[in-house]
Write a structure and sequence with these properties.
Protein name: Toxin-antitoxin system antitoxin component (TIGR02293 family)
Pfam families: Xre_MbcA_ParS_C
Distance between the termini: 44 Å
Structural class: mainly alpha
């Protein structure tokens, strides 16, 4: 019996899980787009956001975290405390997944987490001088950043 595309392990999904803490964060790490969907529906563990911000501090800045993930800095501090609410909302989890997906692609295209973080913070001519990290606040902006990374990957720097 053939597997459907939704049930096939996806290396991109695996990279997202790794950026969010892998097995130390998720009791049952997901490896397919369908499993990612189901995990987002349940809400990611708060620890996934904490780990992601530790790895990519630019996302955790006060002027960025609320726009990108929908979590205020104050709420993030509460998530870090012992006994805090264990899960992010569905919306926050979806935004975190998309941000991690784009960061994973940036790491793949640019070669390192450091290069990916620099890319996110520097204005890009191809994005009308906007910083990619600022565009992650909306689905349309995130799509622009993904397309820009695709062009970089193929050597097109328009």
């Amino acid at each position: 019996m053939a597997q459907t595309a939704a049930a096939t392990a996806d290396p991109g999904v695996g990279r997202v899980v790794d950026l969010l803490g892998g097995r130390s964060t998720f009791e049952h790490p997901f490896s397919t787009p369908l499993e990612a969907h189901e995990s987002i529906q349940q809400g990611f563990p708060s620890k996934s956001l904490v780990v992601f911000i530790q790895r990519f501090p630019a996302i955790g800045r006060e002027d960025t975290i609320d726009k990108v993930v929908g979590v205020s800095l104050r709420t993030l501090q509460r998530h870090k405390k012992p006994g805090a609410r264990e899960r992010l909302s569905r919306e926050q989890s979806g935004k975190l997944y998309k941000a991690a997906e784009i960061v994973a692609k940036a790491v793949d295209v640019l070669g390192s987490p450091e290069a990916a973080e620099r890319f996110l913070e520097e204005p890009a001519m191809a994005l009308d001088g906007k910083r990619p990290i600022d565009l992650l606040s909306t689905p349309a902006g995130a799509e622009l950043v993904e397309k820009h990374l695709g062009r970089i990957d193929y050597g097109v720097y328009t």
